[in-house]
């Protein structure tokens, strides 16, 4: 469905909903009303639960069930209308969700309705799911998390790449998402640029982190490193990405995992999604010391976080290898040159050379994603919830050091286990402040 | 001007011109008629001179001057209507020409008129210019060629990249050219895929090259190498490329150089344009032995070809470095992190790390471009004009060996002088057949 078609339909205009008008709205959507078990707004309850920066999120409940209504606002909610943001991001989110749903529907909320005019998506109300980040702060483990995320990453990234897609379809889709300029610009600025100079929106735990934050801004190797990652972000049209895959974009129960909020979707480097998730596991790891009631209380939990990072990569890699063998239908590594010519070995060598490049990208992007959460505009609750600023800064400076190393030495680490070693070594360091 | 707007205008339809109707057509274009010095078809002379595979090319002369009319045909001319090809390529060619003209107008034909409906461009008739490839076969030197081409490459590639372009403009432009699917597919198939398996359109000097051509198809390292270059071709949206920059796309006089025919334009890796030109210089180099009347007669001319390749790269590199310093206005390597923070050194390190990557790409793409001209569908006149098949094959097998080495060992050669050394060593090899 074209944006223009929708947004001009019937001369109607966008309006932001509230807890009353959203009920009237869903009452008029047949499929949604059916799910709620009523067409009468008076039989519904609605509440606004958005804790993000960019959107309104309503939960609407009826006698038969509940749905989530996510509506884009025309500005960054946190900052107000001084920072406008295009409503079209709901269109990109919907397009990303439907593409992910073709391969991993059980890892997403069920999708009920898209309204381009009102920049709004109606989807499953996930319950009893909770945001993964909050559970990691609470020290909870999820036995299937790594497997679910590794498979989700491999399935969505492989199927959204030239290894699988028809070439014309991939180019057309890349062109569609190339229009998601403003959300890419948020990443380009806030992740890759502003933390590395004296930008007005930067913030950090002051004065404890003043020294390390300033040091970063005059660290030539890290600046070149992060610009090389920005270069890959802007030029490597490798696969359709989620684009913002941190632990706040994942909802979990003891047995289930769902990925939400792909409004930053575009065709970019696979390592960006993988690195984003790893970065947030490492941030959680370094935050654990700040959440301990007794020394070393969270030690084994920290090890579980590192193990989860290791398993995300290994499951991703194994799943990607299987898809490479079984569903490689795109223009890259055509079977005519390899399997059909009796040379499966050549294809396997190509695969692992490719995965080596994805890993290097993931390491570099993980570094960039860690740094920006410590000295840029947007921080993570893992750290922010550590009340004592000295204690918080002690955690943050270690995470910052790891982020720097990943950016500068991204070719040094040949496998995911090297990253765990690095994290442990940095955690044991003393006198960093 | 949107394609759809034009092609639907007034219910008119595309028609292929002939030497009569093309005169009537240009008579109706005021600016063109003015240039010809007449509005009367009877006062014009027209001839069809297209020697390419895809288009009609007319020269129309009047009492006041002459123009070239280049019209796309809806099929590959060489093969006939069994191989359809979209007329929209004239639209991409026009869009590429106008973008190149913003920075290098004196290296292009002057542009007079674009007609999307008839897939037609009217441009300057270049005279006394001749196609560079024919002059290289004839053993002629062009003192300014390397400088002109190095500057052209740097100016067009730098200004068509995220180093210079506004990010929204770059993304929109990338989306526009992403639609040039069919011409990219020709490259994807004929350059990167078909020469490496038993594809029906492949041809080579038989039976002399049967062994080397078959060996290539079971050469695991070269197949992985060429697929890694295809991966970069399809995913590296680095800059707006010419897309087909061989020595048949360059017209020269003793003092002038013009680049024509960018209908394969799209956002791809800078190294592809550079590598294409270098590859054709190397093909010319290996063909020289086949054009000699006496042994070693063309030795110094061969050295001039290698020197030209060296100078193309060094002029490109120097010019790119100047543009990096003076016109770096895009989102990459923002000045706020470098020059504005007193760190020009960091920016310079970033530049040279970047150029190292472009060089590696250029080497790999040069290898792919050489191989496809020897054992794929489309060959080069440099070799085809060597009448004796044994003598031709002796030249071709050396060029094939060089292409293979560039694909497999593309990280081995640290600078352009290494490529000259390699070419000389291979030329001296004996008993390759």
TrEMBL record, chains A, B:
The keyword Transferase applies. It comes from the Bacteria. GO terms for molecular function: ATP binding; S-methyl-5-thioribose kinase activity. The keyword Magnesium does not apply. It is an enzyme of class 2 (transferase). GO terms for biological process: methionine biosynthetic process. Keywords: ATP-binding, Kinase, Nucleotide-binding, Transferase. Pfam families: APH (PF01636). Residues 46-296 form the Aminoglycoside phosphotransferase domain. Its EC number is 2.7.1.100. Belongs to the methylthioribose kinase family. Homodimer. This is S-methyl-5-thioribose kinase. It comes from Jiella avicenniae.
């Amino acid at each position: 469905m074209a944006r223009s078609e929708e947004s001009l339909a019937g001369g109607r205009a966008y309006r932001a909903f509230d807890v009353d008008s959203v009920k009237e709205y869903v009452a008029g959507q047949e499929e949604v009303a059916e799910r709620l078990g009523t067409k009468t707004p008076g039989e519904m309850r609605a509440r606004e639960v958005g804790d993000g920066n960019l959107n309104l999120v309503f939960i609407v409940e009826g006698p038969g069930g509940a749905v989530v209504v996510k509506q884009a606002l025309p500005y960054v909610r946190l900052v107000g209308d001084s920072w406008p943001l295009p409503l079209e991001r709901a269109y990109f989110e919907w397009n990303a969700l439907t593409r992910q749903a073709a391969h991993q529907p059980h890892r997403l909320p069920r999708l009920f309705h898209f309204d381009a005019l009102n920049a709004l998506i109606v989807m499953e109300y996930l319950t009893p799911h909770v945001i993964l980040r909050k559970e990691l702060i609470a020290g909870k483990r999820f036995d299937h998390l790594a497997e679910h995320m590794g498979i989700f990453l491999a399935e969505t990234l492989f199927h959204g790449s030239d290894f699988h897609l028809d070439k014309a379809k991939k180019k057309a889709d890349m062109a569609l998402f190339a229009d998601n300029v403003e959300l890419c610009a948020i990443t380009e600025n806030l992740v890759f640029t502003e933390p590395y100079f004296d930008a007005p929106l930067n913030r950090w735990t002051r004065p404890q982190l003043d020294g390390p934050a300033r040091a970063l801004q005059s660290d030539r190797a890290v600046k070149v490193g992060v610009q090389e990652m920005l270069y890959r972000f802007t030029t490597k049209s490798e696969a359709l990405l989620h684009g913002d895959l941190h632990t706040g974009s994942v909802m979990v129960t003891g047995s289930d995992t769902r990925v939400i909020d792909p409004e930053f979707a575009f065709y970019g480097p696979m390592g960006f999604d993988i690195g984003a998730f790893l970065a947030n596991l490492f941030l959680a790891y370094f935050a654990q010391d700040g959440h301990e009631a007794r020394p070393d209380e969270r030690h084994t939990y920290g090890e579980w976080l590192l193990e989860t990072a290791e398993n995300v990569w290994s499951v991703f890699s194994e799943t990607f290898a299987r898809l490479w063998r079984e569903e490689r239908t795109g223009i890259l590594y055509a079977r005519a040159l390899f399997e059909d010519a009796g040379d499966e070995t050549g294809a396997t060598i190509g695969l692992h050379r490719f995965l080596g490049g994805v890993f290097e990208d993931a390491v570099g992007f993980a570094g960039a994603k860690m740094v920006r959460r410590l000295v840029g505009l947007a921080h993570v609750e893992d750290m922010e919830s550590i009340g004592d600023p000295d204690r918080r800064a002690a955690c943050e400076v270690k995470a910052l050091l790891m982020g720097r190393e990943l950016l500068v030495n991204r070719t040094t680490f040949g496998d995911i286990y090297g990253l765990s070693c690095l994290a442990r070594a940095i955690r044991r360091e003393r006198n960093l402040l």
